[in-house]
UniProtKB/TrEMBL annotation:
Pfam families: HpcH_HpaI. Its cofactor is Mg(2+). Keywords: Lyase, Magnesium, Metal-binding. Belongs to the HpcH/HpaI aldolase family. Residues 4-235 form the HpcH/HpaI aldolase/citrate lyase domain. It comes from Alteraurantiacibacter lauratis. This is HpcH/HpaI aldolase/citrate lyase family protein.
Length: 294
C-alpha cells in the first residue's frame, strides 16, 4: 500500500464518500471524529460500514487504495461503537486521534483483536495509525513509541490544530512560514520515533486547502525531511501531495545506480561514484527511493 496521501472524508457524507474512490488518494480515511457532528455519529457509523463493504480489500487489491477509519478519541464514550461498526467493513486500519500515551493503544489493539474474530478478519491484519502530540501529555510521550513494540502500528502521525488549542497558541507557524518551536519539536519527534521503529511517518494536514502553491512547498519539504506521506482534508490536495512524495526520474536513476554499484561489489563498505564516495546510508536512501517508486 502506498502512503503518500491520506484523505479524510466525512463519514456522514454519502456524496463525498461516493467520490472518494476516484480521487487518487493512496489511503481514504473515513472520518467519524471531527468531521461528524454528535447527532450524526450513529448514522455515520452505518454509512461508513456500508462504504467499507462496498470497497473491500478484494475490490481495491492490486493498485487500489487503503481504507482506514478515524474513530473518536479513546477518552470518549464513542470509540467502541465506532470500532464495532468499522470492523464490520473489514478496514485496513484504524486511525485514532488524541492518543495520550502508548498504553491506550494496547487497549485498542485488544478490542480490535476481538472484533477481528467476530468479523472473520485475519488476526493482526488491522493496523493502527495514532495521531500524536495533540495534547501536552501526548507531545511529551512521543519518545516512548521509539521503545515500544506494537506490531499493529502502521506508522505515526500528528495533529497541529488540536495542539494549538490545547496549549493556547495563537499561531502555528512563524513569520517566515516555518513551524513555531513547539510544533517543530512535536513533528521532529514523530519523525524520529517512527523511523526508529521502521514505521511510516505521516505529516499533518495543511489547513488552507485552497492554497495549493503553499501546499506544494510544504509537501516537498516534508518529503525532503524524511516523511513518507501527508494527511489531506480536500480532494484537490491529493495530486499535489502525491507528486511531492513521488521520486523524480532523476532520483530513481541515481538510486538504481547506487544499488547496482553495491550489488556488483558485495562486501564493500564505501565505493566511488561520480567523484564522491557512497556508503551504507546512501544505499539505504537508494533502496527507499526505489521502494517509493514501486
Amino acid at each position: 500500500m502506498k502512503t503518500r496521501s491520506w484523505l479524510f472524508v466525512p463519514g456522514d457524507s454519502e456524496a463525498k464518500l461516493a467520490k472518494a474512490a476516484s480521487v487518487g488518494a493512496d489511503v481514504v480515511v473515513v472520518d467519524l471524529e471531527d468531521a461528524v457532528a454528535p447527532p450524526a455519529k450513529a448514522s455515520a457509523r452505518e454509512l461508513a460500514a456500508r462504504w467499507l463493504g462496498a470497497h473491500s480489500r478484494q475490490v481495491v487489491a492490486g493498485g487500489g487504495f487503503g481504507r482506514f477509519v478515524r474513530i473518536n478519541a479513546l477518552s470518549s464514550h464513542l470509540w467502541r461503537d465506532d470500532l464495532i461498526a468499522a470492523m464490520q467493513g473489514r478496514p485496513d486500519g484504524i486511525m485514532v486521534p488524541k492518543v495520550a500515551e502508548p498504553d491506550q493503544l494496547r487497549i485498542l489493539a485488544a478490542e480490535i483483536y476481538e472484533q477481528e474474530q467476530r468479523n472473520a478478519v485475519p488476526s493482526g491484519s488491522t493496523r493502527i495509525l495514532p495521531q500524536l502530540g495533540e495534547t501536552p501529555l501526548s507531545a511529551l510521550s512521543i519518545p516512548d513509541y521509539a521503545r515500544e513494540d506494537m506490531p499493529r502500528l502502521a506508522g505515526l502521525t500528528w495533529g497541529a490544530e488540536d495542539l494549538a488549542s490545547a496549549i493556547g497558541a495563537t499561531r502555528k507557524r512563524d513569520a517566515s512560514g516555518q513551524w513555531a518551536d513547539v510544533f517543530r519539536m512535536v513533528r521532529a519527534q514523530v519523525l524520529l520515533a517512527a523511523r526508529s521503529r521502521s514505521l511510516t511517518p505521516i505529516d499533518t494536514i495543511h489547513a488552507d486547502y485552497r492554497d495549493l502553491s503553499a501546499l506544494k512547498a510544504i509537501a516537498e519539504a516534508s518529503c525532503a525531511d524524511g516523511f513518507a506521506g501527508m494527511l489531506a482534508i480536500h480532494p484537490d490536495q491529493v495530486p499535489v501531495i502525491n507528486a511531492a512524495f513521488t521520486p523524480t526520474p532523476e532520483q530513481v536513476e541515481q538510486a538504481q545506480t547506487i544499488v547496482d554499484l553495491f550489488a556488483a561489489n558485495p562486501g564493500a563498505g564505501a565505493l566511488p561514484l561520480d567523484g564522491r564516495m557512497v556508503e551504507k546510508p546512501h544505499l539505504d536512501w537508494a533502496r527507499r527511493i526505489l521502494d517509493r517508486a514501486g
